[in-house]
Amino acid sequence: MLFPKKVKHRKWQTQRKSAARLARPDTRGVSLDFGSYGLKAVTSARVTSNQIEAARKVLTRATAKTGKLWIRIFPDRPVTTKPAEVGMGSGKGNPDHYVFEVRPGRMLFELDGVAEPIARAHLRQAGMKLPVKTTIIAR
User: Which CATH number fits the domain that encloses residue 71?
Assistant: First the structure.
């Protein structure tokens, strides 16, 4: 699982969840920079480190020995939870896991050195492991 080695702030403040802000397309990391094929997000969601790992496992099977894989997202946002059956109040919960907040247009994964039908099939499978709707981009 992916998580940061060291963080400046253990707990982040909660942002406002307006639908307009989440639907606004991303401006960074939107182009196919490294590989020939990429998986691009169409909707917004929080992608956990477990989901990124599940998609990575699918894509490493496609790359085998000849191909190369780039993971363009990293979960650095902590999500806190309080234990079960604990009353309200007494502060914020402890960090439970890390997520990456994906906005539309963000490139998630890139592949190179793989035949097009194989790349498309594996990218489609990897997209099913993620909570966002995705599209496959080719150079």
Answer: 3.90.1170.10
The answer, as to whether pTM is greater than 0.85, is yes
b/e sequence 56-77, b meaning 16+ C-beta within 10 Å: bebbeebbeeebebbebbebee
Residue 6 falls inside a structural domain = no
Span 24-38, mean pLDDT?
A: 92
Q: What is the DSSP letter of 8?
A: S
Rounded to 5°, angle at Cα 101 from 98 and 102: 135
32-79: pLDDT as tens digits: 999 999 999 999 999 999 999 999 999 999 888 889 999 999 999 999
Domain range holding 120?
A: 19-82+93-138
Distance between CA atoms of residues 123 and 24, nearest Å: 24
d(CA 100, CA 73): 7
**Residue from 9, 29, 1 nearest 99 by CA:** 1
Identify whether 3 is part of a domain: no
